[in-house]
Amino acid sequence: ETGVTQSPTHLIKTRGQQVTLRCSSQSGHNTVSWYQQALGQGPQFIFQYYREEENGRGNFPPRFSGLQFPNYSSELNVNALELDDSALYLCASSLRTSGGARADTQYFGPGTRLTVL
Amino acid sequence: KQEVTQIPAALSVPEGENLVLNCSFTDSAIYNLQWFRQDPGKGLTSLLLIQSSQREQTSGRLNASLDKSSGRSTLYIAASQPGDSATYLCAVDTGFQKLVFGTGTRLLVSP
Predict the structure, then answer these.
(1) Position A100 pLDDT exceeds 60
(2) Do residues A30 and A95 make contact, with C-beta atoms less than 8 angstroms apart?
(3) Which of A35, A46, B21, B110 has the most CB atoms around its CB within 10 Å?
């Protein structure tokens, strides 16, 4: 059983640029959630993908977008980067059965540290 | 809107002490509550998950309790060790694994 992996580990961008972060789910998981963690804060929910469709979104603007692929890996895209986008971006995968609000425990990846200059 | 608060924000104790971390949440309509550990600059490690129908969970030296009606949870760490030094986060599941996190308690256990 492989864990959740994320790439890249670190990334430096300049204001106005675009960035793509990647996440590979744990084997057998069909749900991926993305979180943003600013320094000294708890993670904040960005959005979730279940079976390749967005399934809920937090209070983030449309320039934050995502994809989930048939193998359940996922991407987080951020356009027009701002200085406040500097944060640790975490993805988490879990297994959710059809129609159920409950799911197994989420497993988090190590995160991608994004710095916007 | 669900809000999660953790007290204290930071805690420093000598090795061997028993300690309690507190978490409170404003909306009792939760599916479960989880406690996580985060080492500096790293991802999250799940420590304990308490379903909404449960009162407590135990794993080794860790014990977590949940009082849903009062919106409170505690994480009890027995016989603390320097390796326990980390930030501890609690999070409530508002449905479909969408977690709302507190800001964490930063724990330092000195030898």
Answers:
(1) no
(2) yes
(3) A35
List, in order, residues 6 or more apart from B16 with CB less than 8 Å away: B79, B80
Contacts of B84 (CB under 8 A, 6+ apart): B77, B107, B109
Q: Which one of B1, B88, B97, B103 would you mutate to disrupt binding with A, by most A Cβ within 10 Å of its Cβ?
A: B97
**pLDDT tens digits for range B31-81:** 999 999 999 888 899 999 999 999 999 999 999 999 999 999 999 999 999
Q: The tokens of B28 are what?
A: 């009792």
Within 8 A of B41 by CB-CB distance, chain A residues are 88, 111, 113
Whether the per-residue pLDDT at A95 is higher than 90: the answer is no
How many Å apart are CA B56 and CA B75, to the nearest integer?
10
